Amino acid sequence: MKQSWVDQLNAAGVPKCTEVRKGVACFCLESQNLLDSVRKILELEYYLQDVSASDFQEGYLLTYHFAHFEEPGQAVFRVLISHEHPQVPSISSFYQGAIWHEQECTDFYGIEFTGHPDLKPLLLVPEENLCPLRKDARSKKSFLDIFPDCKLVEAPPPPESEENAGGQESPEEKASKKKGSGKSKVQKEDDETAQDSGQA
Amino acid sequence: MLHYAHEQLQGDYYTRAFQAGAQEDTLIINMGPQHPSTHGVLRIILELHGEYILRAEPVLGYVHRMQEKMGEVKTYPQYLANMGRVDYLHALAWNWAYVRAVEQLLELEVPERAEYVRVITCELNRITSHLLWWGAYLLDLGAFTPIMYGFADRERAMDLLQIITGSRLTYCYYTFGGVTADLTPQFIDGTKDFCKYMRTRLPMYKDLVTDNMILRHRVDDIGIISVDMARRYGVTGPNLRGSGVEHDLRRNTPYSIYDRFDFEIPAYEECDALARYLVRMDEMEQSISIIEQAIQSLPEGPVMPPKMPKVIKPPKGEAYGEVEGARGVIGIHVISDGTATPYRIKLRAPSFSNLSLFAEVSKGILLADAVSILGSLDLVIPEIDR
Amino acid sequence: MTMIKKTPKQSTLQGIKSLFVGLKVTGRNFVMPQITTHYPRKEVSNLATYRGHVDLVPKEDDPMTSKCILCGQCAKACPSNCIELVIRKEEVEPPPDEEAQPDSGSKEEATAKSAPKKKKVKRILDAFMLNYNLCSLCGQCVQTCPVDSLEFSTNSYLAGFTREEFIFDLLERMRNKQKASSSG
After folding, report:
1. Mean of the per-residue pLDDT values of chain B
2. Burial of B31 from C-beta contacts in 10 A (0-12 / 13-18 / 19+)
3. Which residue does chain B place closest to A71, by CA atoms?
4. I need a labelling partner for B74 at 20 to 30 A (CA). Which of B10, B121, B134, B364 fits?
5. A197 in a domain, yes or no?
6. Domain limits at A86?
7. CB contact under 8 A, B231 and A120
8. pLDDT of residue B169
9. C-alpha span between C23 and C27 (Å, rounded)
10. Dist. CA C13–CA B226, nearest whole Å
11. Which residues of A touch B96 (CB under 8 A)?
12. Which of B7, B227, B243, B318 has the most A C-beta neighbours within 10 Å, making it the best mutation to test the interface with A?
């Protein structure tokens, strides 16, 4: 049988993923690993669907959606960055389509994408720095509350910037990893479902 | 005599930023925001060397409405009305993407008949969208008559959609769990007639325009989008299929009941504007075939699930509703925090990604060809700006 | 099943022939009957299915009152807040007139608090204001109405010079319509 797309993603050396929903594989990354993973997923010939940010208590959550032209399934990269240092490396050197998506995130949240060719306002007026999608403290919700399959880990002491942390794998995923098996139970079961994925 | 302040003569923010990188002895012009070939308020700053484009930069945001912020202040059903306004040409696909995302969150089962109704209406809407594109693209290229034929036929399809949705353009027809109104016999008979009628019209379009020598010269070998470029920019839809990739969500990850129909995914390998043109012309034919099959096997039954929650309060979590629209993959990412309003809504507009490659694809081409490329990308500006 | 096709290429001769084929199509259409409608003299035939602004539905037994039970669901469901219910409270004598207001105030919290125990408070719809300037014709009000007291009008010829002309009192509209239909 052909390798399932989740296995392919894992075999390519992108940090381990969890299949959060049918047909959706989620990678919780730290911002220093992002470029490496994006390079690998480009080698796997995934295309960029979108880049979006959202505001949580723990920080800004950047979500990158990738999908494949031939294979089913969607790969999601999640990167959590702190409110104090909203910086993340730009993926526009790999995916030029991300240039506009990242500019849009900067418009809406004021996130800085390091290495972006031209981070000027895209959709909003250039004269003002509005950041309209930032939430006030009262309406902010906890990231962990909404995504219970993720957990925060203490970031290794970063060289210069102190990004908070990326979410990590679900408990059962972690357990299977400890046993030393490359593929987790969860993913194996999903091999069949991945073929006709997308329909929930 | 008018007097301008010095800053006004310098142009606005984007012009100044663009001028900073200009070479000597080049001409910088604004194409748009009120240019007939941009079909809306899209502005492109061009640096020209003679008739050749050295550099192009689209400037967006003229019809930006902050749809994503609206999503965070409205309740789930209230936001339905916004969906028809994102892409007014294929409004039902956006309706569908949003209700799919929320249905995934709610884990709602859609009745079988409602799925058929959705397929029929969405495909009919796709035909109207392609017909308008067809007319408008040829209008850009200097052929005035085709838009008259295109509109006359589109009018028929819109009359049909009006019978059940009540509107002609900004539909708000799908709802969580089903559709708001059932098909009427008048609609079904009218659609059958329309399909027959369109089958006679498409060969006429071919004779009138597709085979036309003048059109061929305007579109052949213009605007090459390689598969690699499409991947890097996230190009989807007919633009991608014009680059020789048979990617269509209706086939790749068959949502709803698309796996029950027998249809082709038209794809051409030339990667140019002609290929994209032919993909859309073939797609109309396939849509007609899907509609005919769906009407043939339309089951009886309700169009709404028997038990609907009174207040739509999806559980915590996220969902990504994907639909193949007339312009590409429409994606709506909804994050729910368990309340009646979404926590975050991200709209993935296909035109946004499709236009983003314009800066790269337009390097070194003639200005007149830029119009042809823009038209062949089938842009809808409100969808780009959202 | 599907194949990636090649775009058909054309020789110059075929190209020149295509011009004549196109001309033939144009010629055929030239002698076809006109398909457009000359508006003020003729009307298009599809107006009956047009979904315009909402209208109140009268009761079957009493055409001068609407089916509305004053629950306010439509006003809450509206995305652009264009519906406003003007409600008058009237105290009625202990044997209350049940048929006029069957559901009077059972849902509304405001009246539940203020209602005096001995006298029943009857809530009467004075006006049902629709600000059509803001309406986006989404139909949420019609869908949420529990008693189907709202319907779409097919009024497509709306025009006016001021915004105030588009703030309708639907109750008055309904009564005028009923009067007109009963007298005429």
Report:
1. 86
2. buried
3. B252
4. B121
5. no
6. 5-189
7. no
8. 86
9. 6
10. 31
11. none
12. B318
